[in-house]
């Protein structure tokens, strides 16, 4: 086999972090090569060093990091020893980069046009015409409608997907040889993600750019990559062609990671989530534990002293549903569809109109005092476990907090209860004296679950509770939730944008768009026979963690 | 608490600062016994034959002031005034500012808005003018001056604390706390207040120097601590026109204020680090 001359060759790249305890390696002997015209996916979980690798190619490492060794060659030219001046020419010229969050990567006080033409002028990439013409042509190339008008707009006037298109236009405007995309679609909705990925594939051919795509999402890898390099804790685990990695992974970690990826349609033909324990089902009342009628929420009613004007449209419009004891209702939808708002309203955390009945008690208009006993029945688990724990409180104090608030038990009894709860979520009681920052993301979410369980609630609202977690950890937390449901008969209102996760967890599903339910029904009905066009579009947009070549083969054999 | 103290004495710079504060406090308390002269004593040989103040020497260790009084004695007695002003006035200002800032930031809405507009009004009002009016109405004494300074100085603290509280109140762990059924008092005192400690400590220590100087300004204008009672600030102000002829009269008290303020600041900084669990075990 002849290997084409690599465009970018990284050999034995090692980076140390300066810590008070001394130098600590964060990247250790990473080597890979990028061939012209290919898309290489750098995949791995958080902390694996994918972004560090990208930043060290651009030589944009933060001063607390130090490159220990290794070489980075672009078309035979060594970058690690290049003077800063030459490096500046290279950045944005030969190598361009786009980031995860398009809002923060664009300057909010400069128009789109000013930022685009600036990038074009710096590198003199006007193609003979004026920078403005070139900017317009670039916006056209990334399929932004009305490019002339967009040039005069500011970043906040564009949607997230459009902002990422602008970032791509900016990155490609100087015809870079290499485009480094660091989680370019992670902050976007699935349907927008699908569009951006298609766009990147299209432009790769058009501009002759090779792409290094950094992602944690094996679905995105399967859709985009020619070759895959898998990192873990700063080391290269495995690299190879897309089919080789997905079909014949050599390393155990690769297999484990691929197995942990939830696949849409994996639970076809079943009615409830998979059973994870052998516990006999708890005896539960037949009626609904949560009953919601005509729920409507409007934000921003009061606007200061001189506030006037008509009230804004509601973010949740006349929603009806009920949740049975011991079951899970999955609320799925894209950002801004009002899923989280429903979660908060149901717990009485924000003002709402309509009827919400928790275990027989209508909570609309209850005083804080009357609401307090109801709070014991319904608890919440948030998206970001680190943000939802008080960083100045030890984990034990945080878990005991609900008991203290409701005046349950003496100090010693609470301590025992905390130990029990920690064991319940598979942590150890001696961890109670430690602080949230000393734990990993998955452990922190377990702590949040323990806190939610402290009051022995009947309902738990889980708002994107696994979205911030790595795939392998996510599976464990989901299993824990299922285990608790089977043993304690908990009901979940499970809010997520991730279709595959909702499929795994739910008995019933409601699909939301623009504040209203577009489709509701049993999981089997919604996932196997979606009626609404939006539900179908949503499901089609989910990246499938199976390379398309293999998928096509399957389809052929299936139809044969 | 013992752990915090042990940790503090382990850092050389903090230990030095602690010792300096101890010296200042002891000399303020022991001024009557330590001072070689009475603070308002004007000995015959306190001035040169031409009537100029004496430079530091064997009898008057730090020299004498324009009225021939011993500078060292005045500084020792002045420490009493300035410490009271610096600690009490500034402390009260920080407490008022914290209270107004957190309440306004946490309650928000009309009430919070009204509180903050009042704070803005106080900020826009010339502080010195306000202090002069208040001091003139209330007859200046040491404690009245301290209160006047506190009433002028709380505004900046309130503004900063307000913004911080607004940010904190939006955080998920406060929402989590609400969903557990916690009342406002618990959220404010157990979850928001601890996060404001760094700000309180920074203002509580940094503010000492400015407060000491504000008192001096008031003294200079005749509405501060009344002469002949010495304070570090009014020692500087009484002598400032003799700066050319007797620079020690400005430099020595200036250095004392600087060293004291710096010490408090250093101790405050260390305290802030030690009280933050996320910083534990770091350099």
TrEMBL record, chain A:
Superkingdom of origin organism: Bacteria
GO MF entry, a single one: ATP hydrolysis activity
Pfam families referenced in this protein's UniProt entry, alphabetically: ABC_tran (PF00005), oligo_HPY (PF08352)
GO cellular component annotations of the record: plasma membrane
Keyword Membrane attributed: yes
Topology term for the membrane: Peripheral membrane protein
Signal sequence range: none
Reaction(s) catalysed by this chain's protein: glutathione(out) + ATP + H2O = glutathione(in) + ADP + phosphate + H(+)
Residues forming coiled coils: none
Catalytic EC class: translocase
UniProt KW keywords: ATP-binding, Cell inner membrane, Cell membrane, Hydrolase, Membrane, Nucleotide-binding, Repeat, Translocase, Transport
InterPro entries given in the database record: AAA+_ATPase, ABC_transp_ATP-bind, ABC_transporter-like_ATP-bd, ABC_transporter-like_CS, Oligopep_ABC_C, P-loop_NTPase
This enzyme's EC code(s): 7.4.2.10
Localisation per UniProt entry: Cell inner membrane
Domain ABC transporter: start-end pairs: 8-258, 292-539
Function recorded in the entry: Part of the ABC transporter complex GsiABCD involved in glutathione import. Responsible for energy coupling to the transport system.
Family affiliation: Belongs to the ABC transporter superfamily. Glutathione importer (TC 3.A.1.5.11) family.
Subunit structure: The complex is composed of two ATP-binding proteins (GsiA), two transmembrane proteins (GsiC and GsiD) and a solute-binding protein (GsiB).
PANTHER family noted in UniProt: GLUTATHIONE IMPORT ATP-BINDING PROTEIN GSIA, TRANSPORT ATP-BINDING PROTEIN
UniProt-listed NCBIfam families: PRK10419.1, PRK11308.1
Protein name as it appears in the record: Glutathione import ATP-binding protein GsiA
UniProtKB/TrEMBL annotation, chain B:
Keyword Transmembrane in annotation: yes
Protein location: Cell membrane
Chief subcellular location: membrane
Record-annotated ABC transmembrane type-1 domain positions: 79-268
Record-level GO cellular component terms: plasma membrane
Presence of keyword Cell membrane: yes
Chain segments annotated as transmembrane: 83-106, 118-137, 143-162, 200-225, 245-267
Keywords, sorted A to Z: Cell membrane, Membrane, Peptide transport, Protein transport, Transmembrane, Transmembrane helix, Transport
Family annotation (PROSITE patterns): ABC_TM1 (PS50928)
A Pfam family recorded for this sequence: OppC_N
Xref: InterPro entries: BP-dependent_transpt_permease (IPR050366), MetI-like (IPR000515), MetI-like_sf (IPR035906), OppC_N (IPR025966)
Topology in the lipid bilayer: Multi-pass membrane protein
GO terms of biological process kind: peptide transport; protein transport; transmembrane transport
UniProt family annotation: Belongs to the binding-protein-dependent transport system permease family.
Protein name, as recorded: ABC transporter permease
């Amino acid at each position: 086999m002849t290997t084409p001359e690599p465009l970018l060759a990284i050999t034995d790249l090692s980076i140390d972090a300066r810590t008070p305890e001394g130098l600590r390696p964060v990247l250790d002997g990473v080597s890979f090569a990028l061939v012209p015209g290919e898309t290489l996916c750098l995949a791995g979980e958080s902390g694996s060093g994918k972004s560090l690798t990208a930043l060290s190619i651009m030589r944009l490492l933060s001063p607390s990091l130090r490159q220990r060794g290794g070489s980075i060659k672009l078309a035979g030219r060594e970058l690690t020893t290049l003077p800063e001046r030459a490096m500046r020419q290279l950045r944005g010229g030969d190598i361009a980069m786009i980031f995860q969050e398009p809002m923060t990567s664009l300057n909010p006080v400069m128009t789109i046009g000013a930022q685009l033409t600036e990038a074009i002028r710096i590198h003199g990439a006007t193609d003979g015409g004026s920078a403005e013409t070139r900017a317009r042509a670039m916006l056209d190339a990334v399929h932004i409608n009305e490019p002339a008008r967009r040039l005069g707009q500011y970043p906040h006037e564009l949607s997230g997907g459009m902002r990422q298109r602008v970032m791509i236009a900016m990155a490609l405007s100087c015809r870079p040889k290499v485009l480094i995309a660091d989680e370019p679609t992670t902050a976007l909705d699935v349907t927008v993600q699908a569009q951006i990925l298609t766009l990147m594939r299209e432009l790769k051919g058009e501009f002759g750019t090779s792409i290094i795509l950094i992602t944690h999402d094996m679905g995105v890898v399967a859709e985009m990559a020619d070759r895959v390099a898998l990192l873990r804790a700063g080391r290269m685990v495995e690299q190879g062609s897309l089919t080789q990695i997905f079909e014949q992974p050599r390393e155990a970690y690769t297999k484990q990671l691929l197995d942990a990826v939830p696949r849409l349609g994996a639970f076809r033909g079943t009615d409830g989530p998979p059973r994870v324990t052998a516990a006999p089902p708890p005896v539960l009342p037949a009626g609904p534990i949560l009953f919601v009628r005509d729920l409507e929420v409007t934000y921003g009613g009061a606007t200061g002293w001189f506030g006037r004007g008509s009230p804004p449209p509601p973010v949740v419009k006349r929603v009806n549903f009920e949740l049975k004891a011991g079951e899970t209702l999955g609320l799925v939808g894209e950002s801004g569809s009002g899923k989280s708002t429903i979660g908060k309203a149901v717990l009485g955390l924000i003002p709402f109109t309509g009827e919400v009945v928790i275990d027989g008690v209508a909570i609309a208009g209850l005083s804080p005092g009357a609401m307090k006993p109801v709070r014991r029945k319904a608890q919440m688990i948030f998206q970001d476990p680190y943000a939802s724990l008080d960083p100045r409180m030890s984990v034990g104090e945080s878990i005991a907090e609900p008991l203290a608030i409701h005046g349950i038990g003496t100090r010693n009894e609470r301590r025992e209860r905390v130990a029990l709860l920690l064991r319940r979520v598979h942590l150890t009681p001696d961890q109670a004296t430690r602080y949230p920052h000393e734990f990993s993301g998955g452990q922190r979410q377990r702590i949040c679950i323990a806190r939610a369980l402290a009051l022995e609630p009947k309902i738990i609202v889980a708002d994107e509770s696994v979205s911030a977690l790595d795939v392998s950890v996510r599976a464990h937390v989901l299993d824990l939730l299922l285990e608790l449901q089977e043993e304690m008969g908990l009901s979940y209102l499970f809010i997520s944008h991730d279709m595959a996760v909702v499929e795994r967890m739910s008995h019933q599903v409601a699909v939301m768009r623009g504040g209203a339910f577009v489709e509701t029904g049993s999981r089997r009905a919604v996932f196997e026979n979606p009626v609404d066009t939006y539900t179908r579009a949503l499901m089609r947009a989910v990246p499938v963690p199976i390379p398309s070549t293999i998928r096509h083969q399957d389809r052929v054999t299936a139809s044969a | 608490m013992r752990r915090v103290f042990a940790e503090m004495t382990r850092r050389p710079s903090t230990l030095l600062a602690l010792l300096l504060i101890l010296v200042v406090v002891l000399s303020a308390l022991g001024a009557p016994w330590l001072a070689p002269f009475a603070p308002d004593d004007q000995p015959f040989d306190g001035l040169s034959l031409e009537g100029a103040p004496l430079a530091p020497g064997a009898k008057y260790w730090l020299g004498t002031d324009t009225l021939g009084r011993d500078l060292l004695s005045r500084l020792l007695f002045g420490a009493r005034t300035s410490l009271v002003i610096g600690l009490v006035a500034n402390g009260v200002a920080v407490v008022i500012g914290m209270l107004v800032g957190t309440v306004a930031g946490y309650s928000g809405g009309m009430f919070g808005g009204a509180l903050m507009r009042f704070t803005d009004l106080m900020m826009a009002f010339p502080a010195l003018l306000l202090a002069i009016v208040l001091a003139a109405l209330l007859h200046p004494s040491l404690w009245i001056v301290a209160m006047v300074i506190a009433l002028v100085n709380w505004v900046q603290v309130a503004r900063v604390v307000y913004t911080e509280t607004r940010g904190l109140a939006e955080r998920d762990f406060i929402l989590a706390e609400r969903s557990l059924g916690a009342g406002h008092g618990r959220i404010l005192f157990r979850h928001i207040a601890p996060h404001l400690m760094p700000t309180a400590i920074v203002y509580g220590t940094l503010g000492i120097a400015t407060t000491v100087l504000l008192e001096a300004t008031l003294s200079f204008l005749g509405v501060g601590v009344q002469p002949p009672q010495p304070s570090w600030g009014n020692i500087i102000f009484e002598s400032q026109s003799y700066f050319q002829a007797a620079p020690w009269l400005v430099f020595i008290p200036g250095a004392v204020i600087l060293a004291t303020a710096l010490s408090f600041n250093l101790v405050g900084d260390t305290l802030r680090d030690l009280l933050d669990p996320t910083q534990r075990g770091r350099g």
